[in-house]
Design goal:
The structure holds two protein chains of two kinds. Chain A is mainly alpha-helical. Chain A is built from five helices and one strand. In chain A, helix 1 packs across helix 5, helix 2 packs across helix 3 and helix 3 runs antiparallel to helix 5. The longest helix of chain A is centred in the first third of the chain and has 33 residues. Chain A is globular, with a radius of gyration of 18 Å. The radius of gyration of chain B is 41 Å and the shape is rod-shaped. Chain B contains eight helices and 13 strands. Chain B has two domains: about 130 residues, no CATH class; about 150 residues, Heat Shock Protein 90. Classes of the chains: A mainly alpha, B alpha+beta. Strand 1 of chain A pairs parallel with strand 1 of chain B.
Chain lengths: ~120, ~375
């Protein structure tokens, strides 16, 4: 019993640390840059949703673009692309970590509230 | 008799009128209900379309201004939003929408769907629904149609009374005439019979006796007809049934019809038990008279008549012309089913059937064409005294 409790505590501890570590990486790798001189992450998120019509499709399109960035594959306007250029390619491993965090952060399902007023 | 006939006709007419009116009103009410429901659905669809546009605007504004929270009011409608893959973004509906329809009804709930041209917040289509309340329509229609039905029924009742008045007058005139004529028949028939009897005694010439007997037979036939008419047209003063020895009634009728039996040289065989039935004497007298008269009338010269009376039934068998199956069927149709008031059908069988109905007697006919007929009357045990 004690052994199980120990393993469970250790598991939760590790999970929290990993999540914290991922959040830290997301802030360092994505937010730092996007909050200063290039389109912010929220705008991009909504633009992808508006263009592709679902979270699943948006995630897929974003993953493809970030792995193989091209002008045709970008959802940004040509003028914006001209100013900021294409996004540097990202590794699949990094995208596996960052994309779920990104989509979780701005999830529309959390924003829409149904109320009988 | 005619009065009751007229009442039956009037009742039948009113029943038919009310039934037709009811059916007509039900059909009208159904169409009115359908039209009202369609109108209600059209109104609600318009309101839903407006609400769908409002929701689209709300999503558009929240995306443009990066709202942290979007409050969607669900007081009037249930709302669900779906992405382009039909996966729910938010859903209040448990059922999957009809993706091929813009509006539809499901279990008295009206649904409307709107596809967004731009997928604001990743929403591709919105579905709103509302339960359609048809009860107010039914109440409104009932409030209109029920009083109208009763008003029309009342008008029909009055009109039928007016329409039947001339017919009633005519029936009353005929009835009065028949009663007067019947009453006036008695005296001349009695005069013919008594004079025929005197003639029979006075005439010495044997060849003339034949003619006098013919006069007697004719007068006795008229007597039977007269008694039938009296039975049908004049209500007796009192109708208290009492135990009667049926055998005696049969013998009484045989004596009364003796002249006719002798004239046709018929042989009569009887096997009569001492059965007593609790009846009104006149009813059975007329019943037996008519059955015997028919057995004599439709018999062949020198034929036979067999009368059997047991505690369960009375049977009268003749060797006459007989009846075909079609004729037996006709007797049942005309008399038993109450279509007996056509002219020219005779009133004898009418009386037989009427008595049978009064006492719950069963009436069977066994007959072969050109061989003879047997009429069997059975009575319930309750009638046995």
């Amino acid at each position: 019993m004690a052994k199980i409790s120990y393993r469970l505590t250790l598991g939760i501890f590790l999970l929290c640390n990993i999540t914290a570590l991922c959040d830290e990486n997301f802030d360092r790798d994505c937010v730092t840059c996007h909050s200063t001189n290039i389109p912010d992450l929220e705008t991009i998120y909504f633009r992808y949703l508006q263009t592709h019509g679902s979270i699943k499709r948006s995630q897929k399109a974003m993953r493809h673009y970030l792995q193989h960035p091209t002008i045709q594959g970008s959802t940004l306007r040509p003028q914006v692309l001209k100013n900021f250029g294409l996004h540097p390619p990202l590794s699949p491993v990094l995208l596996d970590q960052m994309l779920p965090l990104y989509f979780e952060k701005y999830d529309v399902k959390k924003r829409i509230k149904l109320k009988s007023i | 008799m005619h009065e009751s006939l007229l009442k039956t006709a009037l009742l039948q007419f009113r029943f038919l009128y009310l039934s037709s009116l009811f059916v007509l009103f039900m059909v009208l009410a159904f169409f009115a209900y359908t039209i009202e429901k369609e109108r209600l659905i059209a109104d609600e669809t318009g309101k839903m379309t407006l609400r769908l546009s409002q929701l689209e605007d709300q999503l558009k504004n929240s995306q443009m201004y990066y709202s942290e929270e979007i409050i969607i009011n669900t007081k009037e409608y249930k709302i669900s939003m779906y992405d382009i893959d039909h996966a729910p973004v938010i859903a209040q509906h448990s059922r999957v929408p009809h993706w091929d329809k813009i509006t539809w009804m499901d279990d008295s709930t009206l649904y409307a769907r709107h596809n967004l041209s731009l997928y604001f917040l990743g929403v591709a289509s919105i579905v709103v629904s509302k339960k359609i309340q048809t009860f107010p329509i039914i109440t409104r229609l009932a409030a209109l149609f029920i009083p109208l039905f009763f008003a029309m029924a009342f008008v029909g009742f009055i009109l039928s009374k007016i329409a039947f008045k001339p017919a009633r007058n005519a029936f009353v005139s005929i009835d009065t005439f028949i009663k007067h004529a019947t009453h006036d028949l008695n005296t001349p028939i009695a005069a013919i019979l008594s004079n025929a009897r005197i003639l029979e005694e006075k005439i010495t010439e044997p060849s003339l006796h034949r003619f006098v007997r013919r006069i007697t037979i004719g007068a006795k036939t008229l007597t039977g007809l007269y008694e039938d008419l009296v039975y049908l047209n004049f209500e007796p003063h009192s109708r208290i049934p009492k135990p009667e020895l049926i055998k005696e009634l049969i013998q009484e009728q045989l004596i009364l019809l003796e002249t006719l039996i002798d004239y046709k040289k018929l042989s009569v065989t009887t096997n009569l038990s001492e059965t007593k039935l609790t009846i009104f004497t006149d009813d059975f007298r007329r019943l037996l008279n008519n059955l015997l008269s028919n057995a004599i009338k439709y018999n062949t010269p020198q034929g036979s008549i067999t009368l059997i009376l047991t505690s369960e039934f009375f049977s009268i068998k003749d060797s006459g012309i007989g009846l075909s199956k079609v004729e037996i069927q006709k007797i049942h149709e005309r008399y038993w089913r109450g279509e007996s008031f056509e002219t020219g059908l005779g009133i004898g069988m009418e009386i037989v059937v009427r008595v049978c109905k009064t006492y719950n007697l069963t009436f069977d006919i066994h007959s072969t064409k050109n061989q003879g007929s047997e009429f069997i009357i059975r009575w319930p045990k309750s009638l046995i005294a």
